[in-house]
Design goal:
The chain has helices at residues 2-15, 30-54, 64-75, 77-93, 106-149, 168-174, 244-278, 284-310, 317-325, 329-333, 347-366, 412-418, 448-454; strands spanning 153-157, 204-210, 215-227, 233-242, 314-316, 336-339, 344-346, 376-386, 389-399, 425-434, 437-447. It has 455 residues and is an alpha+beta fold. The protein has three domains: 2-149, no CATH class; 153-242, Beta-Lactamase (2-Layer Sandwich), CATH 3.30.450; 292-454, Histidine kinase-like ATPase, C-terminal domain (Heat Shock Protein 90). Strands 6-8-9-11-10 form a five-stranded mixed sheet. Strand 8 (376-386) and strand 9 form a beta hairpin. The two termini are 71 Å apart.
Length: 455
């Protein structure tokens, strides 16, 4: 009796999708399957017998088609097969009218064969529908479980961005009730300044009024299109993630960095004023020292300003080199040729290379390739992967300047250039005082994970 009740319950559960389950196909044991077969076959036989009282000439198999379909839909293939066989036997031997001829008539056999073929096709379709039904319920359950496990708010829109059905997540966020946000009216909850930015094709960040706090909060909106069989967009699933804390921290950081840049500029200005005010007049040596010192400070300021502007501890070398050489004037810069890919370096290395470029440019303007009309300077950097590491090289090459002679002593400028990449792994600096022009080559290695993170 318990198995019969379970069979009835399984039938009702299947035929009532509104009864929410976990989406898995019900596993019926053997006894319950036989109970389901008995239920379907017995009900169909009873109905056929009752109908036969008033309509004696009714087709013998008429009431068994629904029984086979229900057995296949609820129990699967084998309950459907057993119901089909029992139905065929009952219709053939119980409800067929063979007249006075004992046994099975030719017409009855033909009717049974036709019933078997038709019912078999019906059973195959029923089993296919059963599999599709339970697969769709599994997919729906997984989708709902993922949505519930996620902190994101999920909503569904049509290809034009209109809302066509109630969205519980959107209602919980905005406080709007259906159908007040139907169509494009859901945009009423978006900040007026951000409505033009809303796009269901690209990821955007917009402000949405939150009902709980009655305040504007930042949300990152990402969308995924759902395509039909022809590849056309049928629906768009939008995921909203609260990024208010990140945006607030970013705005606070930008404000702080702006203040730091302003303070850095003022600090350098104070240093310049102190140096110019303190140096004695009409002293060429002191004046030359002051200019050299201020150029070094300016090189550090340029590198530091780029670091602060980039809002990071890594800066593109292609931005630093031109900034450091800018104070030398357009006439000298026209003789300097810069070439190299995008290369992000950490703050310490950027500062070292910036100081080295300033020293090399100062030396070239006084004694090297930038001191005459024909001289030129080539600056080039590149990187190569070597196994698990990346080799970075930076070259400063002068040509067509006055003949170069090696220095007799190691000055402060030489020490600055030689220590430019000391903060990097395997940092090396080579100074070659060639007669045709000075050559300075810097190189160092870094791991490929560092390269992937920076570049």
């Amino acid at each position: 009796m318990g198995n019969l009740v379970r069979a009835i319950r399984s039938t009702v559960s299947f035929l009532s999708p509104a009864l929410h389950g976990r989406g898995a196909s019900p596993a019926l044991d053997g006894v319950t399957q036989w109970a389901l077969v008995g239920l379907c076959f017995g009900t169909a036989t009873l109905i056929r017998a009752v109908i036969g009282i008033w309509v004696p000439d009714v087709v013998p198999f008429a009431t068994y088609f629904p029984a086979i379909a229900i057995a296949g839909l609820v129990g699967g293939f084998w309950p459907g097969i057993f119901t089909l066989v029992l139905s065929m036997l009952a219709g053939l031997f119980v409800f067929s009218h063979a007249g006075d001829v004992p046994g099975v008539s030719v017409s009855g056999a033909a009717s049974a064969a036709l019933f078997a073929v038709s019912a078999s096709l019906q059973l195959v379709l029923a089993v296919m529908l059963r599999n599709l039904f339970w697969q769709s319920r599994r997919n729906e359950y997984r989708y709902r479980a993922l949505v519930q496990a996620s902190t994101n708010i999920v909503s569904v829109f049509d290809p034009a961005g209109a809302c066509r059905e109630p969205q519980p997540g959107w209602e919980a966020l905005s406080g709007m009730k259906w159908p007040s946000y139907s169509g494009m009216k859901w945009l009423d909850a978006v900040h007026p300044d951000d409505r033009e930015k809303v796009s269901l094709a690209d990821a955007v960040e917009v402000r949405i009024r939150e009902a709980a706090s009655n305040d504007w909060r930042w949300f990152s909106v990402r969308t995924v299109p759902l395509l039909d069989a022809d590849g056309k967009v049928e629906e768009i699933v939008a995921s909203l993630r609260d990024v208010t804390e990140r945006k607030t921290a970013q705005e606070r950081r930008e404000l702080l960095l702006g203040d730091l840049r302003h303070r850095l500029t003022n600090f350098i200005a104070v240093i310049r004023a102190l140096v110019n005010a303190a140096k004695p007049k009409d002293n060429a040596d002191v004046d030359a020292f002051a200019q050299t010192f201020l150029r070094r400070v300016g090189a550090l300021q340029s590198a530091g300003d780029l670091v602060l502007k980039a809002n990071a501890q890594e800066v593109d070398l292609a931005d630093v080199v031109p900034a450091v050489l800018a104070p030398f004037g357009s006439e000298l810069r026209s003789k300097i040729f810069i070439e190299g890919p995008r290369l992000l370096l950490k703050e310490q290395t950027i500062g070292g290379i910036a100081l080295a470029c300033n020293e090399l440019a100062t030396n070239a303007a006084k004694y090297g390739a930038l001191s005459n009309h024909d001289g030129q300077v080539s600056i080039r950097w590149e990187s190569h992967l070597e196994g698990e590491t990346e080799r970075v090289t930076f070259a400063w090459i002068e040509r067509d300047g006055p003949p170069v002679t090696p220095p007799t002593r190691r000055g402060f400028g030489t020490r600055i250039v030689s220590s430019a990449v000391d903060s990097e792994q395997n940092g090396e600096v080579t100074l070659d005082y060639r007669p045709e022009g000075l050559s300075c080559r810097m190189s160092f290695t870094r791991t490929r994970t560092q390269h992937a993170a920076l570049v």
